[in-house]
Amino acid sequence: MPQKFSDEFSRVKSLVAGLTVSVPIVAMVIQPFARLDAETDLNATLAALAKELFAKLKAIRRPEDYAQMAQAYEAYSEVLLYFAMRDRGVLIERTPGTGGHGQKRPDFRHLHGAGYIYFELKALEIFDPLSRHKQMAEEALEIAAELDGRAKTPGVHFGRPQEISGYIPRIGVAERIDETIEKILNNVKHGQIEYGPTVLVIDLGRLGSMPFGPSSLLPVFFHDGPPAESAVTGELWQVALGSPGEQIFSLPEFDGKSNLGGHQRRGGVLREFPSLVGITFLLPHWQHNPELLTIWNPGWDQSRLANPCELQEHDIEELLAKYSDGLNDRRNELGWPYRVYPIREEQGPQ
Question: Same structural domain for residues 142 and 242?
Answer without folding.
Answer: no
